[in-house]
Amino acid sequence: MNKTKSLRTALLQMTCSNSTATNREKISQFVAQAASQSARLVVLQELHDTPYFCQTEDVDNFNLAVALPGEATGFYGSLAKKYGVVLVTSLFERRAPGLYHNTAVVFEADGTIAGTFRKKHIPDDPAYYEKFYFTPGDDAWRPISTSVGQLGVQVCWDQWYPEGARLMALSGADLLIYPTAIGYAAEDTPEEQQRQREAWRTVQRGHAVANGLPLIAVNRTGFETDPSGQTAGIQFWGSSFVCGPQGEMLAEASEGDEQLVIVDIDLQRSEQVRRWWPFLRDRRIERYGDLTQRYLDPTV
Q1: Do 79 and 31 contact (CB within 8 A), yes or no?
Q2: What does pTM read for this prediction?
Q3: Each residue of 49-86: pLDDT tens digit?
């Protein structure tokens, strides 16, 4: 496959309502706008069909899960085909009775499913009770092959871990992509909130630098209440962004607004950056066996 030197990419940062039909209509309008501006790759945020239901543990929420393939993939496949774009989506997958995943599904521009990635790292914190809903993915860290390149897609909490980014890079990814749902806790001070947002941006820019790859992070925005009333809800901080292989910011959305961000990504720049900073060449792979341990007891 020939890599596109300049890949016009669209990031869709939006709020989500309780109506899947309304959310999909909004997405359709954004994708149409992206295509009208010649975007070839369109990336959506995490769990974009619904509100972020993981704020509470409720077995009825499992009814939101969809089969893959099924009606949801039919809809998004048709959308990708209609506008001729490679489309990165994020769906609540019902794999089997009692077995559910948080799954990124990538559609080729002809509407076919190019591949999937099941979220590997599953958080369990107040307002982010994902372990109640999602089984960790058991598929490989492998980029998804598409007409616009090898897409190293992971999901949200995966973005904090250098191991996944490195494995995607070692498997030939052309860029790293993270659909995301992360926001502020109301009880945190404004200073702490901004520290967390900056940490989120910094760790991902570090993945870009360490692997010499561009990176796309698409977060949701808007306020969503906690149905249980146990917390004050989540103000999703938006700030979706794209950075280059040296961590340089190429485009960034606001914190609070719905936005369609269009950016041109040079996929060939990674080659030159890796010549300057040959991190993959200089890895001491024979010395990293201990990374498979949970913790290294200093007394042993």
Answers
A1: yes
A2: 0.96
A3: 999 999 999 999 999 999 999 999 999 999 999 999 99
